């Protein structure tokens, strides 16, 4: 009973071994992350198209929810840039400019994301995240970072630009209003960016975002920048988020489904990737499905307390871990920092300039444009680079959700195409060894006229069966010297019933031509299917070997005894001595 | 120049080596198939919902077109049952009961099929057919055979039943009219079926369809069965098919696209499957894309001479080959038989009873219900049986085209799912060998505490990278005795950039834990990617081996020298002597 409870509530498990040392570490980490969350949360709320205070609401209840149900001890949950963008992309087209409806839809979306993540976790659907490949994610994140960066242009320039997911629309709108650009605002934002970049380079221990927020707010307060037309955050309601039941219509829920699905998966993907890194570094294991449950509870709980969708963020988790977080208690301490801020410090936010928040966003997302991955793929895998580029371009041109969907679909089609057109090889024996390798790669490998050794590098199934049949049928069976074909089956990881049919056909062709067929290196699951299909029986167990070399030796021995038996000697190509066939079955 | 012409026109190539012997064989085969085509063509036209004479039109020009451009020397082109059904399924819903519009749509469809097949052939899209797996095709054919069989029920019962692709609708309509059933018609049809089945069992040399047609037509003529209410073919226009340009609207073309695509692929699939069998038996090779061109030309030419879509049929090709067809001249001779029939014999068709044509169809398609494949799959591969059953049920319930589409999609999803959840193994050495195998399958395999040997049976790519990482991370790295991990990479047929990232991570984890990582059996294409990704460099070439055994020996040697070097001996598990590491790189 207690074990099951501990299993469901990882925090309980952690608390049973809690020590004063743990508390010291968690306190330090929790305070650091909490302080970092204040400006970041408010800045990310701007990306989501919400009032800044909602970034703080999203930094409170979800942290507590995750602390109780989550299994990562270092993960820092809260608002993150990409999810904020996805929220805006889903909600903005439906809100029709009504700020109250916008907020209501965002809260509904949070509840949906929570329910979806919880359901996926309980149904063990965490594996779905595996279908987001690295190049697709990288192309998507890079494009999203650009969209986010440009979405803040209006705050940096102090002009009114309608929200858009398309960079060219934003730039065009900005260009049309170039004479309205507010110079003091631009200067403030640019100085903010410069300070952030300098602090980032100088020392990672300094919470840059907090520094520029304090400096920027102080400057406006001192010099009355708001009278000069600098846009400020203004009146912020004090106090903790209220309990609200998201009011929704089924039509809204249906329209939000694609967005909720995307956020659930992308948010989970970001979270699990960073959580796994720190789990490994700290020597504990992580269950993807339990993580989904943890994030699902965090979002569901948050939805009832004015939170927009959250997940585990990359940069704050790194800070949390570096600052020594040992258990989920660190997250609770961060939440307490936010709660105290909401209760007592909101009056201080009045003079906070939006341009400074925009500068924080821009510097944060600049690091997400993944040039390094593009360069890496240029060297390593051009096909994957094309996939990254496709996702990048599709995200910028077709739209946020459409872009990632296009990337996923194309990457799956590419997988099928590749497995349908597998690599094949005719093999020879490497000199002074019993190893057989592709003749094209190892031109000095030794071939023989009487035994042909072939290999196909793929699971053998309906879509590539014809390649396999062609591999055998392209062998010149009318060649008088040829007595046997050995197929190296070790790279054949799986066979289906179509493949079993093909092997029956290949055996028939070989027999018609008086050629012996040997299979080497059959693996368990493949052997099972071929055995049930009668292929093993038809072939005879004496034609199965673990190793290619043993099969070649057996083929030679059979052919020699055959030749000596009926007197028609044809041992033309026995240029080298072979050891006797090893016992193998 | 001549070579290129020969390449484009296979018939020319065949004629340059033509002999009197060839002509004798081709004449016999061509006559046999031509005689067989007369009743079959008329019967299949009924399946397509067309007047019987259109079956003969479809047996003329397409045969000539294929004879000139096709590469199979035995393939007998003409109307076939499944394609006829697909024609009815596409055209009937659009014709709105207007017989002239029905014929016009069928001719338009023929032209579209021809253009599609020609285009696919020229663009080398023949590989697309590989995505129709055996179980899907089998399930589809079985269901289609049932639909075809039941579609003839109205002719067998002599009642008027509206065309439907749903068996339950046909049965319901028949049940509602049970008192209208025309007994003489039923008896005629049943006797036809019995004769056909008996002749089929007795001797394959007798053209059963022709026999029942002659007997049935004679009986009606003698006894005046048409006055007794037996439905007959009636007045048939004599003469060769006219040249007509299919008149079409773009709206019709758009509506026919799904049908044209399905017919192009299914027709090609049936044709190439049987053509390949006889190409192999007769020792020549076949190019799938050229076959598409041949069928495409056959259909395009046919479309202008009142032909509905045709393809190479299974049973007539078998007869053609058995009767000795040596070249495409056999097809030309069959066409001549049909031409003579159209010119001189059409008056004989007047008394031909529809019930006899229905009996021919029913016996022909009964053999297409693939019980054997279902039994085979029950033994061999339950997953494929499920796929066959799904396609079968979907074809009967969702519709003809929808059924095959559902089968293809589910089979592709299954492929992705399987490659995303690969088989993995921890391996040991088989006694008295250098072969390493799965411990679960070979419990007597020898393991060692200092070297762990693992394997993953799949191409390593984004969707299964997490399985691969888990495989390594589940190894207890804190085990003091463990010094090295050997990964058998020979079954890893391909890696992508996500996999390269994963290997970097795995190397890092191993190094953190003071464990040596060895890769054995890297194949060329995999080595290339890992080399460009820097994995090979990071690992060091001394950690790469062709064979698992060599890697294990190297690991042991390194560990031994390490132990003797720093004095902390820990050679706990050297229970057996190993030969010195073989030279390999």
Automatic annotation (TrEMBL), chains A, B:
It is a multi-pass membrane protein. The chain crosses the membrane at residues 53-69, 76-95, 101-123, 135-153, 181-199, 206-224, 255-275, 329-350, 356-378, 385-417. Its main location: membrane. Keywords: Membrane, Transmembrane, Transmembrane helix. Residues 556-585 are annotated as: Disordered. InterPro entries: SLC26A/SulP_dom, SLC26A/SulP_fam, STAS_dom, STAS_dom_sf. GO terms for cellular component: membrane. This is Sodium-independent anion transporter. It comes from Longimonas halophila. It is found in: Membrane. Residues 571-585 have a biased composition (Basic and acidic residues).
